[in-house]
Design a protein that fits this description.
heterodimer; A: mainly alpha; MetI-like fold; 79% helix; 0% strand; B: mainly alpha; 8 helices
């Protein structure tokens, strides 16, 4: 191991680290925002609401993220309509396509996680809300969703970590994220061990940070379920 | 349907390679997973620590990073070992080898956790009863532990397989002529990237759908001996 290579490239790695963090953060937030209405539609008994969402999550969970990224980044340009649209200045940017692909991908997984959590809402909670005279929308906002979020936290934490790891494919479409930085270092010095182990350690650190964060969140949100200290 | 401009044959050849790589990786993953699970449930502190390190590190790093590390680093490592043994020629680590080893190595860690959970799900009383019955350790493993472990492990195993299958798309990044690689070639020469990447995506969708069907069948079969009377079907 030649540590001087790592020292000389530290700036590049930090830049890549920042790119990875903001891309994943934006994708995860947009994905979460999308998944809330989608999961409600997915649990609806109306097939017109339920089916399209099912097809969407089936496609995005059944195909590789890398292909989804290629479809958006390389694929959309095939259509003149897209090239002439107002969105083209954004859609020809690699970073925008990557964030879009990540957000759509994580929204699909999050929708199914939330669907599962909504479906096991205790009947008593719903009956109590109805007995209290809540409208369906109010019940959704005050009872069903908060209760589902709490149950979904452990699975959702895993999904965020999968998204972090999945984001490494951004480097395939020229983005200098953490993996992109490592690939640049590898091509500059031909030092694969230094290049990729350094990137791996950064990912490991973020992963541990996320695990810690979600444990804390779970602890807080489940405060009312903890036994009082005797 | 999609007009593939005569590239359909090529895509099928790529699909075959993708499936081969996925199955070979699965073999490595299952072997490592079994080894890892036995290490994690063993009495040896060293074995447990090694297995813990393996699963923690592997599950904390993106598979693409590990794949690039093994593809580029493996080349250097293999050749320096060969050189120290007095071997002169340059050894080329193929993309297939590096890819299969990496994917197998990564999903071995996930399999370890799945298998460990399945082993722990078998009630210890059954193992003690088998021992008290005079069965040898091998018999306890073969007759009591293994059949039930398979049953408990199947759902997790199926999940891991589906994720593994989709991960094979990364093999195109290290230059293996798999489905995605060939779709990219066809996309480039026809200038129809959407058509060809969509075709690749749909092929993956068919593969995952087929896998889900097979796994559902296997799970129902594994449940068969445990079904209670009076439940019909």
């Amino acid at each position: 191991m030649d540590l001087s290579i790592i020292r000389d490239s530290l700036g590049l790695y930090l830049q890549g680290l920042w790119t990875t963090i903001w891309m994943v953060a934006v994708a995860v937030l947009v994905g979460l925002a999308l998944s809330i209405p989608l999961s409600v539609a997915r649990t609806s008994k109306n097939p017109l609401l339920n089916w399209p969402v099912w097809a969407y999550t089936y496609f995005f969970r059944g195909t590789p993220l890398l292909i989804q990224l290629f479809l958006i980044y390389y694929g959309l340009g095939q259509f003149p309509v897209v090239q002439n649209s107002v969105l083209w200045p954004l859609l020809k940017e690699a970073w925008f396509c990557a964030v879009l692909a990540f957000a759509l991908n994580t929204a699909a997984y999050t929708t199914e996680i939330l669907r599962g959590a909504i479906e096991v809402t205790p009947t008593g909670e719903i009956e109590a809300a109805k007995a209290a005279g809540m409208s369906p929308l109010l019940m959704l906002r005050r009872i069903v969703l908060p209760s589902a979020f709490r149950r979904a936290i452990p699975a959702y934490g895993n999904e965020v970590i999968f998204m972090l790891h999945g984001s490494a494919v951004a480097s395939v479409v020229t983005i200098i994220d953490l993996t992109g930085a490592a690939r640049l270092v590898q091509s500059r010095y031909y030092a694969p061990f230094e290049a990729f182990i350094t990137a791996g350690l950064f990912y490991l650190a973020i992963t541990f940070g996320l695990i810690w964060l979600f444990r804390g969140l779970e602890h807080r949100l489940h405060a009312h379920l903890r036994r009082p200290v005797a | 349907m999609l007009n593939l401009q005569g590239y359909g044959q090529g895509l099928l050849a790529g699909t075959l390679l993708t499936v081969e790589a996925a199955l070979a990786s699965l073999l490595v993953a299952v072997a490592l997973g079994a080894l890892g699970a036995l290490a994690k449930t063993s009495h040896s502190v060293v074995a447990r620590a090694v297995a813990e390190f393996y699963t923690t590190v592997i599950r904390g790093v993106p598979d693409l990073v590990l794949m690039l590390l093994i593809f580029f680093g493996g080349q250097i490592l293999v050749n320096s070992i060969a050189e120290s043994l007095g071997y002169e020629d340059y050894i080329d680590v193929s993309a297939f080898m590096a890819g299969v080893l990496t994917i197998g190595f990564v999903y071995g860690a996930y399999m370890t956790e799945t298998f460990r959970g399945a082993i722990l799900a078998v009630p210890p009383g059954q193992l003690e009863a088998a021992q008290a019955f005079g069965m040898s350790r091998w018999q306890v493993f073969r007759e009591v532990l293994l059949p039930q472990t398979v049953r408990y492990a199947l759902p997790g195993f199926g999940n891991n397989w589906l994720v593994l299958l989709k991960t094979t798309a990364l093999l195109s990044v290290i230059g293996l002529a798999d489905l995605l690689f060939l779709a990219g070639k066809a996309a480039g020469s026809t200038r129809m990237p959407f058509t060809f990447y969509l075709a690749a995506a749909l092929i993956y969708l068919v593969l995952t759908a087929l896998s889900t069907m097979l796994l559902g069948w296997a799970e129902r079969r594994a449940e068969r001996p445990y079904r209670r009377a009076g439940h019909g079907s």
